[in-house]
Amino acid sequence: MYALLITCSLPSPDLLYGKVANEKYALLRCIVYLMYLTWELKKYNLPGALPPQLVKLPHLQVVDFAYNYLSGTIPREWASMQLTSITLLVNRLSGEIPKELGNITTLTYLSLEANQISGIIPPDLGKLINLQTLMLSSNRFTGNLPVSFSGLINLTDFRINDNNFSGTIPIFIQNWKKLERLEMHATGLEGPIPSNIYLLNNLVELTLRSCNISGEIPAYLWTMKSLELLKATMTYRIVYVLTTTAKNGRFFINKLGIIVTVSACTDSNCLHVNSGGKDITINENKTTLSYEGDGQIEGGAAKYFVNDQSFWGFSSTGDFMDDNDYQNTRYTVSLQSSTIPELYQTARISPISLTYFHYCLQNGNYTVNLHFAEIQYTNDHTYNSLGRRVFDIYVQERLVSKDFNIEDEVGSAEKPLVKQVLNVNVTNNMLEIRFYFAGKGTTRIPDRGVYGPIISAICPSLYFLI
């Protein structure tokens, strides 16, 4: 017996723009007896809605509409098909998951990541006993994870990041003995970590960031032999010393502290940094300002830079995941455009935490100007415009903006924004500004690994001495 794979491509411009008419399926009806058929319309920026007419292809097994501009809901008509894979990530789909999808027991792969789907997860999905990959990240799901998920014993990859679930991390995760990747950051779920998670002997990657977990890091996490990557942001007290038994893994526990030793310096009262760019001089309010660039400073998973001439520096932690670059070195981005000022055409980015500090600063009350522009997303009707960047801003260890979103603040991408932080007290000659990714927002638009804090420039200035 032979399997035949046909990948359907777009035959005409009207399909490119989502105007799918019934006659377009006439040709496909002629091949309904094929043993294997794949419908792949990926990265065409298709508008319109998902076609329920696919049900007319009873032998269709794989549907891939990833990276388009589709809206509307998931057709419940698809539930009568014998699909093995549904990929709808990065679109504008809304509404709830049809409970009827639980009838597609042939499904092994379901990706709904990076849409606007809301509501509770239907318990009927627990009937998908052959499911191996389930990706629901970056949506608007609420409620508890269904208890019926305990029966998904064939799962190898489970991701529910960036949602609004409630309740605790479910104990039934321990049933997923084949699980290799578990991502649950910024889900809305809370701890504790299920005590029997150590039974997951095949687990390679574990992400439990921003899960409101406190206490002690369970010692057994460090002894899981297959675990190569643990990402956690918790108010944990570390009571277990990491030894050479974990030499093959990468473990990130985000607890940033900066210590600067200074022998002698001259106090200053202002700073201008062009983040991710070069030294530039600009005219601002009839004043000429010189910005020092840091674009020549290479990045790294744990980068620490000090400019001992101007008494400032930055610290960056983390490695961009899922971008096919194990040790990332691209921590600056740029966009050449005639529509935005030069200061905003470059930026420094970070996958987890980016901290700028200025020491030898005169004590006093400061106004801190933070310059932003979203230059990795677009202002058009393509999937490149669907990204959502969210991070937190701390000044002097005080949270001044939670879930900060540049586009929400200014209305669009590629548009400058100056955020003023007033009444910043400097009492120990040190100013610290930290941008922190708490797990919210998309991570795969326009490409995998695009997320985290972004900053174009910083400019603290003295308001009055104290």
From TrEMBL:
It is a single-pass type I membrane protein. Keywords: ATP-binding, Glycoprotein, Kinase, Nucleotide-binding, Phosphoprotein, Receptor, Serine/threonine-protein kinase, Signal, Transferase. It catalyses: L-seryl-[protein] + ATP = O-phospho-L-seryl-[protein] + ADP + H(+); L-threonyl-[protein] + ATP = O-phospho-L-threonyl-[protein] + ADP + H(+). It is found in: Membrane. It is an enzyme of class 2 (transferase). It holds the Pfam family Malectin. It comes from the Eukaryota. GO terms for cellular component: membrane. Residues 270-458 form the Malectin domain. GO terms for molecular function: ATP binding; protein serine/threonine kinase activity. Its EC number is 2.7.11.1. PANTHER family: LEUCINE-RICH REPEAT-CONTAINING PROTEIN DDB_G0281931-RELATED, LRR RECEPTOR-LIKE SERINE_THREONINE-PROTEIN KINASE RFK1-RELATED. This is non-specific serine/threonine protein kinase. It comes from Populus alba. The lineage of its organism: Eukaryota, Viridiplantae, Streptophyta, Embryophyta, Tracheophyta.
